[in-house]
Design goal:
The chain has 293 residues and is mostly helical. Helix content is 54%, strand content 8%. The strands form two sheets. The chain has a three-stranded antiparallel β-sheet. Helix 2 crosses helix 6 and helix 2 packs across helix 9. The protein starts with a helix and ends in a 7-residue tail after the last helix.
Length: 293
């Protein structure tokens, strides 16, 4: 394997999974309509695989708060994404979400045509990452005030699946699909602007993944202080100052790919009740957001 392929292995694998996830919601309505194959139905708001239904935790919780009715199948459907977030963090956002697939595809086009380089890219509009929590709380409050599950109907990941279904089955598109275009245009100004600051689903998954097991570990003895990891991070996290330990990190692996010294690696944090290995420090086990030695 060439040095370049080794360097960008996480990017390649991430784009593979994003493409496969996008292909799933693209092919599903075709199979349902033309081949009467209904084993897989829906999209990432509510995806049915056989008798198993996977429900977005935000949409499920939002519907629960509005209806004030506990629907057991919906609660069971939310378990899988919740458990994944508890152990792996926001990996849905970086490895599965169709919005991320569109962002990554747009970046690939930019690299080919405009020689886009994330190391030299300057985000034009930078806000506090805490805005993400405002978006999450505001979405819940507004839905409860209006008595209407807003994110169920205007969720960008859900809109992608819905627009694909409308286009394939009814040969038309809904006006709400314009939201997807706005998100892509914002990405050209600031990388992942919507994902960084405005996505309430990302906020909920970040909240659930605060104590996640999978994290990017920084070995400060190997770190040269070049700051490349911070420059290439899609969310603009200060990785060389412990940013990968924060709840905002979505474990995309971009910083690991670009790190020139190999100071950044994925690691699986051992449960507290297991005896640590000699390479694991108390800092790493506790999840302290500081670089590990």
């Amino acid at each position: 394997m060439s040095e370049r392929k080794k360097r960008f292995r996480y990017r390649r694998w991430r784009y593979f999974f994003l493409s496969a996830a996008f292909l799933l919601i693209l092919v599903t309505p075709i199979l349902n309509l033309y081949f009467h194959f209904t084993f897989v139905q829906g999209w990432y708001q509510s995806l049915g695989i056989g008798r198993l239904w996977i429900v977005s935790p935000l949409e499920g919780l939002e519907s629960l708060l509005i209806s004030k009715y506990i629907y057991l199948p919906s609660l069971i459907g939310m378990l899988i994404p919740v458990i994944v977030a508890l152990y792996l963090g926001r990996v849905f956002c970086s490895w599965v979400c169709p919005i991320s697939f569109l962002h990554e595809t747009l970046d690939r086009i930019r690299r080919r045509i405009f020689r886009y380089n994330p190391v030299t890219w300057k985000d034009r509009l930078v806000l506090s990452l805490r805005v993400l929590w405002v978006a999450l709380i505001g979405e819940f409050l507004l839905s409860m005030i209006l008595g209407f599950p807003i994110f169920v109907f205007v969720s960008p990941p859900g809109l992608v699946g819905r627009e694909l279904m409308l286009g394939i089955i009814f040969h038309t598109f809904a006006l709400e699909g314009f939201i997807i275009l706005v998100i892509l245009l914002l990405h050209l100004v600031t990388r992942r602007f919507y994902c960084r600051y405005l996505c309430p689903l990302g906020g909920l998954l970040a909240f659930l993944g605060q104590k996640r097991r999978l994290k990017v570990r920084l070995k400060s003895k190997k770190c040269s202080g070049c700051g490349i990891c911070e420059k290439v991070c899609p969310l603009g996290l200060p990785v060389n100052r412990g940013g990968s330990y924060s709840p905002y990190c979505w474990n995309c692996g971009e910083c690991v790919d670009y790190c020139p010294t190999g100071a950044l690696k994925f690691y699986w944090k051992r449960p507290y009740y297991l005896k640590p290995t000699s390479e694991e420090t108390p800092k790493a086990r506790s999840g302290n957001p500081l670089p590990d030695e």
